[in-house]
Amino acid sequence: MVVLGTRPEAIKLAPVVRAMDASPLCEPFVVSSGQHREMLTPMLAALGVQAHADLAVMRDRQRLSGLTGRLVTALDAAIRDERPDVVVVQGDTTTAMCGALAASYEQIPVAHVEAGLRTGNLYNPFPEELNRRLIGRIARWHFAPTERAAAHLRAEGIPEPQIVTTGNTVIDNLHWMLRQGRGEPAFRTTGKRILVTLHRRENQGGGMRGLAGAVRRLADRGDCEVLLPLHKSPAVRESLLPDLAGHPGVTICEPLGYPDFTATLAACDLVLTDSGGVQEEAPSLGKPVLVLRATTERPEAIDAGVARLVGTDPDEVFATASRLLDDEAERDRMARAVNPFGDGRAADRIISAMVGDCLRPDAVYSAALD
Ligand code: UD1
Ligand code: UDP
């Protein structure tokens, strides 16, 4: 059973579902929790993934506790109906944490895709650091995207055979999508192009309003186009729209489908983002990234020189982005296509490790702490 509920889970689990479909030894049963609604259904269709069940848990302005209660209850029912051999969850969302918890209540082994990312700060990103750590206590298989993530898991006492370094499935999907050549860039102009995405809970409110001010000052320069595909969250919209709506240098649109988003990313000159997935995709396409967050659990892109953790101070964000727009040589130094997050074959490694273990005659499914 593959459990997903938000846009990034669909993107990062689609290659796993496709690899299961291709294997004679697996039969995927995809459960959409429906934590996201408008941002999920078209995404699954674009990725060629069919959800076998939709739990439709989303509420407008959902709070974490209410969402958690609805998810555990609904996922428990789905797991008891279907009795899968393995439950696969991805990343750090509330859907993933509740999928792992509901599976372990039924003593069904959990596979965690994108395991081991850490900032060391329980409140940043919030609640994602907490969710990812909790899943780490439950999972039978820990599929770490990078060696650094695997090292975090070892340091926490997860037994070595349960950790497999695979690369990140987001890169599998990016390659798959770009090969199809389906998307169109969403920019209107051909000058300097800046792609901005913002949505994190810890940035919403004052922090995000400050970032909107920095983005507005960039657009005020008059020599660039800022494209802002808006997350569906009302809290995000309330933080960003007052400063940015109607500005002639800012193009605001609804969330882009994955084909158009990847084409847009491939066409931009600079990325400003607090997204996890975008931090992983941009380096593959050689796009400089300014990470608008206090911490990142993906330091590999920074080490590779293609991303900078600039924080959320509006003056600092404006100054760094402005300098990069003015200094083509500095931008070019950052704009190197590197793949610190994987080679595009993560899903195959995940399936072969999981199926291999399940077929062992002495297979014993126990969580790390049993
Ligand atoms: C969630 C994840 C976050 C991930 C992000 C991806 C958690 C705790 N957070 O954050 O890790 O980075 O998704 O985008 O799991 N909404 C809609 N339609 C949609 C989606 C959202 O209207 O299709 C609105 C709803 O009012 C909803 C709100 O956005 O209540 C927030 O959605 P939620 O999933 O709770 O949190 P995210 O901030 O999206
Ligand atoms: N994305 C998309 N359309 C958009 C914005 C983002 O398809 O308008 C994709 C992007 O390619 C990335 C993923 O959504 O793979 C990131 O999702 P998000 O930023 O919502 O969540 P996070 O990665 O931070 O958990």
TrEMBL record:
GO function terms (MF aspect): UDP-N-acetylglucosamine 2-epimerase activity
EC number: 5.1.3.14
Residues in the signal sequence: none
InterPro entries in the cross-refs: UDP_GlcNAc_Epimerase_2_dom, WecB-like
The protein's enzyme class: isomerase
PANTHER family the record matches: UDP-N-ACETYLGLUCOSAMINE 2-EPIMERASE
Keyword Nucleotide-binding among record annotations: no
Keywords: Isomerase
Name of the gene encoding the protein in the UniProt record: wecB
Occurrences of domain UDP-N-acetylglucosamine 2-epimerase (ranges): 19-354
Pfam families: Epimerase_2
Family membership noted in the UniProt record: Belongs to the UDP-N-acetylglucosamine 2-epimerase family.
Record protein name field: UDP-N-acetylglucosamine 2-epimerase (non-hydrolyzing)
Organism, scientific name: Actinomadura graeca
NCBIfam families, A to Z: wecB (TIGR00236)
